[in-house]
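Lab channel / #folding
Pinned by the channel admin:
"Please post every new chain as: sequence first, then the structure tokens as a reply. Keep commentary short and put observations after the output so the thread stays searchable."

First post following the new format, from NK:
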Amino acid sequence: MKLQIGLKAEFEIIVSPKDTASQYGSGNLEVFATPAMIALMEKTAMMCISAYLEKGQNSVGTQVNVKHMKATPLGEAVLCIAELIEIDRSKLTFNVEAFDNEGMIGQGIHKRFLINEEEFMAKLYR
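Reply from TO:
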């Protein structure tokens, strides 16, 4: 199997206390936090390509450019969709969108870089 433009993944969570702005420290309210939405988008992008990676290969997030357009309360489902829209050697670009039951709550672009896990960790601790 080979990475190709158009690959998609979806992942859904239910907003829990650990996902709130007050928990993340990004705000004081018990609503879905922007950092939690970004983490959901990164996870969904990872899931999009995980079956296509070779043994010892992984990806790391390098850029996130998203808008968080609407608050989502505790207990509500949030669905994220990631689509691989560009491949430039080891640099992957994803369109990411998040929805609650009222519609889109976030959207943007996320970039990841393909790495060899062993080499990456060796450089990190050199």
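NK: Residues 8-124 form a domain with the Thiol Ester Dehydrase; Chain A fold (CATH 3.10.129.10).
TO: also worth noting, The radius of gyration is 16 Å.
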